[in-house]
Amino acid sequence: NAGVTQTPKFQVLKTGQSMTLQCAQDMNHEYMSWYRQDPGMGLRLIHYSVGAGITDQGEVPNGYNVSRSTTEDFPLRLLSAAPSQTSVYFCASRRRGQVDEAFFGQGTRLTVV
Amino acid sequence: ILNVEQSPQSLHVQEGDSTNFTCSFPSSNFYALHWYRWETAKSPEALFVMTLNGDEKKKGRISATLNTKEGYSYLYIKGSQPEDSATYLCASQGSNYKLTFGKGTLLTVNP
Question: Which of A98, B61, B109, B111 has a CA 20 to 30 Å removed from the CA of A60?
Fold first, then answer.
């Protein structure tokens, strides 16, 4: 099992560019989510999905779009990158149960210049 | 308590010391409390998921307790080793499956 695969690992964007961060899991997990991690802020939830075709906003959704066309994939799209989106992004997945732990991808370090 | 709060923010201990840190969370709409260990340049990895008041879990030298009535959990590390150096995150899980994370406690164990 590969677990949660997140790509790319590093990315530099110019302000106004768009890009997609990829996230795929092979554990048949229903629940997937995207977090951003900024110094002194901990992990903040951007968007999440409880199953294919269902997505919802988290704590900091502005500037990001998601879709969940399959159980395996949950891409995060930056529509028009801004310097404020410079951060480390983590994708996570878990089963939709009460006591199930989250599994995290390797993280993407994004810099917007 | 509206947010998940962790204390202390950071601490330094000597190898062999035992230590503990605290996670405080809203006791309303509570489903589960998660603890994760996050080493530098890696991804967070789960330590424990606890649900019941009075739960106590143990993995090697690390253990955790849960008080859902007053909204806190303690993480204990017995006989700290340099490889225990990491950020320890707790997260509260509500009924909508979302995890709300604290800012973490950064532990440094000096040899």
Answer: A98
